[in-house]
Amino acid sequence: GHAFLLRIEQRLDSPFRNPHQYECMRIAADAGIAPRLRYVEPATGVAIMDFLPTRPLAEYPGGAQALARDLGRLVTRLQATPRFPERYAFLDVVQWLLGFLRSSGLFADGLLDAHAEGFERIRAAYRFDPTTAVSSHNDPNPNNVLFDGERLWLIDWESAYRNDPLTDVAILTQYLAPTPALQTALVEAWLGRAPDAYLNARLTIMRQITRLYYAGLLFTIVARGPRAAPETDLDALTPAELGAAVAAGKLTAASPETMRVLGKMSLAAFRAGLDDPGFEEALIIARVG
Known about the structure:
This protein is mostly helical. The protein has helices spanning about 20-30, 65-80, 90-105, 115-125, 165-175, 180-190, 195-220, 240-245, 255-275, 275-289; strands at about 5-10, 35-40, 45-50, 135, 145, 150-155, 160-165. A three-stranded antiparallel β-sheet has the order 1-3-2, covered by helices on one side. Strands 4-7 form a two-stranded antiparallel sheet.
């Protein structure tokens, strides 16, 4: 009389496999943030958990504003758990992914030079104290946030480890709280107060970092498929155009073409962010404190 979900990991030999993902999943499940675990065997990549019936996030009671606030509170709860194990320095991960993008042959020579220059400026300005690292999901995109009709859950913990407190916040504000008003609601609910100029500056920069992060992740998937001619521009769909293409069946979830489109959107957003006057100001504030 109870529904369960059997999750089987497919690539146990991957060099990028996170050996701590099941410990992170268990910590999150014990805190009521992930579905309840019934069985887990990390060595074989098998887990059995409660199956959650889901409803679209668009049906969330109270609308987008309430969703943004409750997402912020969900991150607060996650960051209050016993700290996840250490895995990588996040900026090192992004630097590796950017290096992969530039050397992959997927892009014309020089197309990502501005991205590399911008990231170096970020690395010079964004200081991270490892002692402030917290439990972090590191991939709370809309597919990994579930609404069961009553409350929110996070699933898929293969990218989870101890990280900068702003990582999950930055990702959520981009994908599920895209307007200034919704971002304010999410951040204030997470922080418990209005953010100061220093935190806002760091959040602006972290959004840029996570844009490169997702671009790298998405194009690693694209690179596994048949190779097309290198990208010669970063013209990208808008979120509205993406939604229309999916609704019309022109793009299907998780297809290599959809990953390519999403990756270009992330790269284009990063490039546009470099030209935003607020980004320059954020770099100065982050650098001087």
